Amino acid sequence: GESVGLHLPTLSVQEGDNSIINCAYSNSASDYFIWYKQESGKGPQFIIDIRSNMDKRQGQRVTVLLNKTVKHLSLQIAATQPGDSAVYFCAENRGGGADGLTFGKGTHLIIQP
Amino acid sequence: EAGVAQSPRYKIIEKRQSVAFWCNPISGHATLYWYQQILGQGPKLLIQFQNNGVVDDSQLPKDRFSAERLKGVDSTLKIQPAKLEDSAVYLCASSQMGEPKKLFFGSGTQLSVL
Prior knowledge:
The complex is a heterodimer.
Chain A: E1 4-6, E2 10-14, E3 19-25, E4 32-38, E5 45-51, E6 56-58, E7 62-67, E8 72-77, E9 86-93, E10 102-103, E11 107-112
Parallel strand pairs in A: 2-11
Antiparallel strand pairs in A: 1-3, 3-8, 4-5, 4-9, 6-7, 7-8, 9-10, 9-11
Chain B: E1 5-7, E2 10-13, E3 19-24, E4 31-37, E5 44-50, E6 53-56, E7 65-68, E8 75-79, E9 88-95, E10 104-105, E11 109-113
Parallel strand pairs in B: 2-11
Antiparallel strand pairs in B: 1-3, 3-8, 4-5, 4-9, 5-6, 7-8, 9-10, 9-11
């Protein structure tokens, strides 16, 4: 089965609020994690990544937090905008040489006006 | 910089027919991946190429799926014969040698098997 998953299939937030999307993983050997955004009819788009030797990484309006103790990853989006509406996937690289990412099922972020 | 190009955009076939998808990665990207994304799920890796060699094809159903990247640039993924459960979006992605894990995806080919 898949080792990377998300706690909620749908998250609804008010425009302007902060969004937090969560992800759990089970493989302790995973050394790299990425968040992707996928809009309808498009391929996944890179948002932000984090290596296992880090706890936090910030980008433009986005922050990724990694808690290796409980194998938990989160994506925080500040001041959510209508354009943030999409499905968000966390993905992990399990190491061992192959670079293919393992994706979870995704969270659909819905922005309410 | 041009992104990952895929064609066709959509394809509808009947079961037991064959189909092929084409991918042109970002220029200079040595690593190419094919993913299958079933509706409502995350993408699943089918095969990974490094230049023209296969790195990982452990999840490729080899009895019906095949892929090649003969000159280390473009790639084709073929399904023969197709089954109903092959209905999905087939995504191609590529990455640079220096950052092998940051994948850039194309828009995909949406396959419907009737």
